[in-house]
Amino acid sequence: MTIQLIINELKREGVNSKQRVIDKLENLTLEELRTLKRDINERICKEKGEGNAI
Hints:
Order of helices and strands: HHH
Low-confidence stretches: none
Strand content: under 5%
Helix content: over 70%
Oligomer: single chain
Mean pLDDT: 90
């Protein structure tokens, strides 16, 4: 799961998207958590103007 996937899901209308995102976030697998962490770190570095995420 990435930030963009969360945003895309929340933008969908008529599919109970908020609850779907909540359910998904509450039940992320370890690999999905790592992917989300990596995506967040990349976005932080991008905002700070750094080259590579840690």
